[in-house]
């Protein structure tokens, strides 16, 4: 970047209400989206209002650069990649401006998330119906840009059908509103010299020519192709009053701008049509087929019964879920080993009505001898079917090696009745191109196929196949009169083939439209028109060498740490808000900055490790850029389970910090936090003195300032004795008193319960004894959780080795190792096996299967009938439960909820919170305190504050309970405390 341009951007930033970033880190984070492309932008801007966007347009015009509009950044076609200024509207321009329930519309800013919008619409009995698979993070502006559809488009249509009006800024900086116009209003708009008048005048002249009209009708996709998003939608305008004497449809340029990928104008506000909420009762017919052709023919039959959705799952996806523990429970409806399953949804006001519709379809399919099984699935299990489908697609990305399923022909759409013939020609072409495993999943009811060939774009031959498959697919789409893009847009991956599919004359028309609307090429150049070759600017260089980086964690399953980072396919699941539920990613939920997503962390690791390898840097991890982006990762483990590619950023961060410390040293605060167990041993000699210092405002305040802890944060107090000391002193007497007669369990004495939460440990031991279990607690090291959180992995390796040596011959299914603190006991399942090698690793893996939370153990015993509700009070109580992040990722909060509901009149509500925000030491650190509390305020704190005083607040994590105390002044109990207190 030239000094002149740098200075100009700095000057622009001083007048900018939002944020402008020109640093290399932010530019690298925005160099990719969910596509296969990479291009370093000039800068990144977060505008707050229309004035900011006008300033960006003026800057781009003056300095001959461009603006790349971006929202969620989930585009598969490379729409968000470019060399200009990336303009991200998702952080600030994300409000619902007006809802009109009577007329059924809403006005929104482009950065509002689709599912978040629907949360606000639900009380009005309305919703925005286009439902992309990315709906929990897709912004409405992006949906307008791509003309998104979703699985229910056969009922509700695409986004274009719902866009009523667009507020825009044109390339000359003028604000223009595009909406419906009468024929006379259209003529009036064409008069004048403004850019607005010019665009109306041009379209009037262009679409009035009979040859142009004929070319559009002949070359555009067939009218029966319901999903069509290739090129500019001039065919939509052709069917309006000014150009069709028989039409009563008003002209509306918003129909052209929808699907234009931000290439014609910058959208600042959207008025959308809303639909009534869908019928309350649904049923899913899951028809099983032995061949792809049979399933395609059955789709045609299914559409005759007017379903709400017809979705295709194939054997490759289903097979990916067979070995996945989480997804095995979602395979309940699968019978045998089908090649294809069609999930066909019906809905009605009553279950009987919906079931009757489904049965008519089943009767029809059976009469035509299509399919060998047609099980019915009802709510809430319908969600499990959709979860299985999406999880299978995510698991495809976990295949080791460089070859990955890629999105580049995944958006072809044809008329439904031609789907069997189209597939009959597509399948052999792909196999001839060397694709032995082809994934077929589709919005089959809309004739749209999402197919992902598996290729390695670091390999020259596969790059050739990349182009060959794309070219041949485009030819096939043209042959069948289909659309190259059904809903994902053209972007960089399909733009090159628009002349082939839409005809050269229509393509020339597109170019003329672009020229009039945007003569200086300011808006997202290289998309739809003048697109660069589809095999240029790829994310990976051909022949790129990946270094073998020695790591302490075992990344062999993915082929090394770089491959572990590359598992991130950019889908942006980590950008969902707290309204969508789940844990991933807490820091993004609080800040709404791309930099704080799991995707950003994976991208920066990949970028810097690759760059440092090319520069032959001695320590590839010696990078302040990685450190900066990793800073707000709170190691919650949410990504390990919620990311579709299961990117484990907590593990990647720990590995990075381990190497980073080797070059940059370990800060004092980090050493103190990591060695908290050793410090507590010393402080435990005189716990009252420790508590006096930590509880006194003056002394604790001084220590906090010296060590970099937040002054607002309270400090944990040591118990008067340790759990281990109490156990050794009292266990013999307790055994005699309770005479346990059931199985023996080992209790893991974690460092947090041992020093801080001793009373919880005492009650847990007494609970187990009173329920009839013999409790053994032997000498063993700390869990090492504090070392793990700070990347001191050498120490954790030693701890893991010791734990395996101590427990491997003691712990069995009959004598499990139980833990109270989730983050401590779950280290046995998660990190320990990954830090060991050879026989020790195998022993750790075997041991991990019998290391359980006490909650899990007791829940299983209850289900076996070994624990009775009669052992507990009949008093009525309400419990609100906040689950621990690691428990959510590596286990299940449902076990704890089940446990707490054992007393007959205990009602348990699981708070739909993600992370509490404390995350070990994170919430204590001065620079992280505000974000920590922001995370708590998303869901947890409000839920606790709303709870009546007599409601029990329960949380299994020591950090969670501390955070609840500081954030709400309510005392939360460990679930085991709650259960102990309920004993009779």
Structural overview:
This protein is of the alpha/beta class. It contains 46 helices and 29 strands. The protein has a 5-stranded antiparallel beta sheet. Strands 1-2-4-3 form a 4-stranded mixed beta sheet, covered by helices on one side. A 4-stranded antiparallel beta sheet has the order 15-16-14-17. A hairpin with a 4-residue loop joins strand 5 and strand 6. Helix 17 runs antiparallel to helix 18, helix 32 (723-738) packs parallel to helix 34 (758-770) and helix 34 (758-770) packs across helix 46 (975-981).
Main structural class = alpha/beta
| Number of helical elements | 46
Q: How much is the average pLDDT?
A: 95
Lateral arrangement of strands in the main beta sheet: 5-6-12-8-9
Instruction: Tell me the total number of β-strands.
Output: 29
C-alpha Rg (nearest Å): 30 Å
The parts where pLDDT drops under 50 for at least 5 residues are: none
The quaternary organization reads as single chain
Largest sheet: 5 strands, antiparallel
Gross morphology is globular
Question: Hey, roughly how much beta strand do the residues contain?
Answer: 5-15%
Residues in helix, %: 40-55%
What distance separates the N and C termini? 74 Å
